[in-house]
Amino acid sequence: MTTMLEVADLGHTYQAKSGAHTAIDGLSFRVDAGELVCVVGPSGCGKSTLLRTISGLIRPTRGDVTLHGDAVRGVPEDLAVVFQDYSRSLFPWLSVQRNVEFPLKRTLKRAERRARAAEALDQVGLSGAGGKYPWQLSGGMQQRVAIARALAYRPALLLMDEPFASVDAQTRFELEDLLLKVKREHDTTVVVVTHDIDESVYLGDRVLVLTKSPASVVADLPVNLPAVRDQITTREAEEFVELRAEVARLLNVGKTEAITAKRRSDEAQAAKWVAAERAANRERADREAVAD
Ligand SMILES: Nc1ncnc2c1ncn2[C@@H]1O[C@H](COP(=O)(O)OP(=O)(O)O)[C@@H](O)[C@H]1O
Ligand SMILES: [Mg+2]
After folding, report:
1. How far is the CA of 50 from the centre of ligand 2 (A)?
2. What pTM did the predictor assign?
3. Hey, which end of the chain has fewer CB within 10 Å, N or C?
4. Cβ of 45 below 6 Å from ligand 1
5. 149-162 pLDDT tens trace
6. 95 lines ligand 1 (CB under 6 A)
7. Is the C-beta atom of 218 inside 6 A of ligand 1?
8. Rounded to an integer, what distance in angstroms lies between the CA atom of residue 209 and that of residue 198?
9. Which class for 62: exposed (0-12), middle (13-18), buried (19 or more C-beta within 10 A)?
């Protein structure tokens, strides 16, 4: 596996009039190419700060961000970000279609841009809205335009900051599935920030759980669910139910307890593997006995 993103000992302290505020403190993790990592943490813990430093929008006060081997200084070319604040992410003077086409201007000819934007708008359920202006749309629709713009760009790394927080539940499910489909089809590496525990498990290949402010990584949990997921059966799966409980516990307890919880979960996991291995061995022995 090649590493797409590496965050090493990242820290950021804001200097405000009211004094200094450390938002993130000693964050380290890696994301492999093609992986979808969810970052979950309490409100105000520093998730948006993390995404802003990864995307080169703010310079961290400590540590390094590396994107396929290169140190991030300024916004990288092959990166797209869906911001939490949709109301500020679209150009009000451009139509919806033109907003989606905008980042493609340097790389694609007009006809291709049009086709790519139309396809992305269709994917987010906005095929009829291309001629409208952002201010003519609801908040949830504006956010879908921002998502369409990011998808149309087909970035190597897609960063999303609570991307589905402003849409209704049904649309949220559809957009989650769309994201998983796009990720599979284009091998996009994705980092999604969310405060929704279920969403983090449903979407993630891994879930990074952050501590309260200032944020550091309290657990890095692999999600052993099949790549193709389903809103009903996946959410009922034992692994899903166990993981969401684990994430909830990690978010609620202090750091030391959280580490113990992680160890307990590793032990439980190991016990499960041992049991499965034993069952498989027994079955093999039975089969061989029958064959004899
Ligand atoms: N530009 C800024 N100047 C000073 N403090 C900030 C700034 N942006 C965010 N903060 C503070 O940093 C902390 C983390 O913010 P943020 O990264 O937005 O958290 P989250 O996205 O997890 O809710 C909060 O306490 C917030 O008030
Ligand atoms: Mg935020």
Report:
1. 9
2. 0.84
3. C
4. yes
5. 999 999 999 999 99
6. no
7. no
8. 13
9. middle
